[in-house]
């Protein structure tokens, strides 16, 4: 079976210090070289009903994209996945990811800040239109983008809102942007504001992650 791939064309992060974006870091994927400043995750993630294993070999750079691969045909734990993260911590930022999302059903494409389970904000795309979360947020079988701030107890009291995804999200590059400032998280698609969250805004620094 084919692998399920999230393709990242480029990412940029304007890092905020004292509420002012003071520096910019850009990762591009020209050639076949993994960029400096990112690290490939290599550890297990315990979960139910299936655990996951983040495998560095599932991260590939080729043809101007970084591919985060999930090999097809997996049905038992651990599910082999892929993830990269910044080598540095971020304290407020405007992070813009240029990506082609996964069309094959069965994965979650994630772009997020993480410090711990109560200090996380993320953009997620669930590739299966029949997944529980997609059914909850969409009445027409579409696959919306999910925008979440984790709550004090993690997923238990997280706040998730949604936004309409591009009709060609799985075939064309689009800009997925998350602006995190002390007062709010703001979620954009191709430069257009989709949602603003003012509750449970993260306050602790952490790495920025992209996974599949």
From TrEMBL:
Instruction: Identify the residues that the record assigns to the GH16 domain, covering every copy.
Output: 27-212
One of the GO BP terms on file? carbohydrate metabolic process
Q: Where is the signal peptide?
A: 1-18
- Key words, A-Z: Signal
Task: Tell me a Gene Ontology molecular-function term this record carries.
Answer: hydrolase activity, hydrolyzing O-glycosyl compounds
Fetch the InterPro entries from UniProt. Answer: Beta-glucanase-like, ConA-like_dom_sf
Which SUPFAM superfamilies would you find in this protein's record? Concanavalin A-like lectins/glucanases
Q: Which is one Pfam family of this protein?
A: Glyco_hydro_16
Could you tell me what this protein is called?
Answer: Beta-glucanase
Species name: Pseudocercospora fuligena
Q: Taxonomic classification, please?
A: Eukaryota, Fungi, Dikarya, Ascomycota, Pezizomycotina
